[in-house]
Write a structure and sequence with these properties.
592 residues; Rossmann fold; ten-stranded mixed sheet; six-stranded antiparallel beta barrel
């Protein structure tokens, strides 16, 4: 039994906890919010979970639990700011008071009455804490996402992630500080290892697009900087402090290398090159993804894209094993074997500029201005896309992007121009979404981790990628496709995508961005805190809990940069890439 506190009239709260204060009577309490006068020998901080009780006339005891959302301290009896000096010297009588505002999270039983002034308030621990935060209702759907301010685990309800009652996760924060991708990979690690997937864990897949450096290419390497303290945090969360086991990495071919060697610097295991042959480009009608910028759908020439893609699909024929093509029904002087994207674009250009052959490709009413606009955009795509659309490399047999070979598939995009990145993201998302549609079942799940969501699904404009992401957001959870999207500015992401995310997470925010209505789920105090949050601190909002919870997730147990590489724990799913003499020379600080 805890020792009673003199400041709370010697009371000991039910459960044996020392009261931290009493419900104040100078601030009106409601069934959804009340204030606590903090005892002089106690303290309350933001995010503390507290509980109080009220006994009804019929003898029913109502337990009212909540989360501290603000704390204020002041002098009672002072009138002027300068009075603080007199009070300090003892020349003016006054008392220091601390008052904590509490937002109610749960009332049991559901009799919504306010707590009475003078009732003891204590910190919620054990079963009381689990009840206050609805963890007791999550049963086998608890996914640990970090530790709360009290050092105890905080959980997500997996039913709001896997599509059962909701789906998708939105993570926002300042680039380089908010550790968005670190949290996304930790969330995957927790989902794979917490037991919520049961027997489906092995077949559940994750597709990760790496757009910033090679930080995500070492998920199956242990982190050499992991401390015993960090390992202990994994233990508290019930998770193994291990790296991912089954990872496949895809990277584009190195420029100027005729052998198709993956363009990676520091990783030398389980790396495969990826590219599309000209035959695949024609057969799969990939032309729309060449025009994947957000403003393209508002242009006059967009009607030509589908017509040209249909003609290529209808009249192409594959030549040889390397994916070269020949286009039928064209001028014999133009229709030889095509082995590069530039040659294919040149053929299209010649055919469309010739008024006699243009009508075989596009509708006769198409204006010359629209044709020229289409060709200008197509010609500008030659340089960025030539490395990944080609037919001049020997088929290595493992270059097709697929998630079937590993649990986690990482597609490295950071060496590609922006135009090529959009192409790869769009084509890959379409391929995986179609695969899940053809399966006809939501399980096993497919997680898609995409950073810079505001670039691929901007609020304004339209594009093929944006349409796919909207489809994922609106229909994906019924198909078992779950989006984990990260962005610096949620205010610039298509509203329907953000609205369909059941779980919303915010790290360090820019002050101007924090003021946007997209962060209305954060109480005012948390919005302000988010502008000074340190790396590793996230604010997690989920439908079960009325108040977002501040958590700290552990330092990654997997390497997040070359300098952290420990031993490799993965499965060899591809040929080794040549070692780089500068591998491991990375002086960047760890993510947090």
């Amino acid at each position: 039994m805890a020792e009673p506190s003199p400041a709370t009239n010697g009371e000991v709260a039910p459960g044996g906890q020392v009261p931290v204060g009493l419900v104040v009577g100078t601030v009106a309490a409601s069934p959804l919010e009340f204030s606590v006068g903090v005892a002089p020998d106690q303290f309350l901080q933001l995010d503390d979970v507290v509980v109080t009780r009220r006994k009804l006339p019929d003898g029913t005891e109502v337990q009212i639990a909540g989360v501290v959302t603000n704390v204020e301290a002041g002098h009672e009896g002072a009138r002027f700011a300068s009075d603080v000096f007199l009070i300090k010297e003892g020349a003016l009588p006054a008392e220091v008071s601390e008052v904590a505002e509490v937002t109610v999270t749960r009332v049991e039983p559901e009799v919504y009455v306010p707590p009475r002034p003078g009732e003891a308030v204590s910190r919620a621990v054990g079963e009381e804490r689990d009840s206050a935060l609805y963890f007791d209702k999550m049963a086998d759907a608890k996914v640990p996402v970090g530790l709360g301010r009290d050092g105890q685990p905080v959980y997500l309800n997996f039913e709001f992630v896997d599509g059962t009652r909701g789906g998708h996760v939105s993570i926002s924060g300042v680039s380089g500080i908010a550790t968005k991708t670190s949290f996304a990979t930790f969330l995957l690690h927790s989902i794979f290892n917490s037991g919520v997937l049961a027997g489906e864990a092995h077949n559940t897949k994750a597709l990760i697009f790496s757009v910033k450096g090679e930080d995500l290419l070492f998920l199956d390497y242990t982190n050499s900087r992991l401390t015993d303290e960090a390992r202990a945090k994994y233990g508290l969360l019930g998770l193994p402090a291990t790296s991912f086991r089954n990872v496949q990495v895809f990277a584009p071919p190195r420029p100027g290398d005729s052998s198709g060697t993956p363009d990676v610097r520091a990783r030398d295991k389980a790396v495969s090159p990826f590219y599309w042959t000209l035959a695949e480009f024609c057969e799969q009608e990939l032309m729309p993804f060449v025009f994947a910028d957000g403003e393209d759908e508002r242009s006059q020439y967009t009607m030509l894209i589908g017509q040209v893609a249909a003609r290529l699909k209808r009249d192409h024929s594959k030549v040889g094993a390397d994916g070269a093509v020949q286009i039928a029904n064209v001028d014999p002087g133009r229709g030889g074997q095509l082995r590069s994207f530039e040659q294919l674009v040149g053929l299209i250009e010649d055919e469309l500029l010739d008024e006699d052959t243009r009508r075989d490709w596009v509708a006769g009413s198409t204006s010359t201005g629209s044709v020229n606009a289409f060709l200008r955009r197509l010609r500008s795509a030659v340089r960025p896309l030539s490395a990944i659309i080609r037919a001049d490399l020997k088929d290595r047999g493992n270059r097709a992007l697929t998630t079937s070979e590993a649990q986690v598939t990482v597609i490295d995009l950071h060496n590609l121009p922006d135009r090529a990145q959009r192409f790869v993201v769009g084509v890959s998302l379409r391929q995986e979404f179609r695969r899940k549609e053809e399966m006809g079942t939501a399980r096993p799940l497919m997680f898609i981790v995409l950073d810079e969501l505001n670039k691929y699904a901007p609020r304004d404009g339209d594009s093929p990628i944006k349409q796919i992401l909207l489809d994922v957001a609106e229909r994906g959870r019924s198909l078992g496709v779950i989006l984990i999207g990260a962005q610096q500015t949620a205010s610039e992401v298509e509203r329907r995508i953000v609205a369909n995310c059941s779980i919303r997470v915010a790290g360090r925010l820019d002050p101007a961005e924090a003021a946007r209505p997209e962060y209305g789920y954060l109480p005012p105090a948390q919005r302000q805190r988010a502008t000074i949050a340190k790396p590793g601190t996230m604010f997690v909002s989920q439908p079960d809990i009325p108040v977002p919870l501040a958590i700290e997730f552990p330092f990654p147990a997997w390497a997040t940069r070359p300098a952290e590489k420990g031993h490799w724990t993965g499965v060899d799913t591809g040929p080794a890439a040549p070692a780089d003499p500068f591998a491991g020379l990375d002086d960047d600080p760890p993510p947090f």
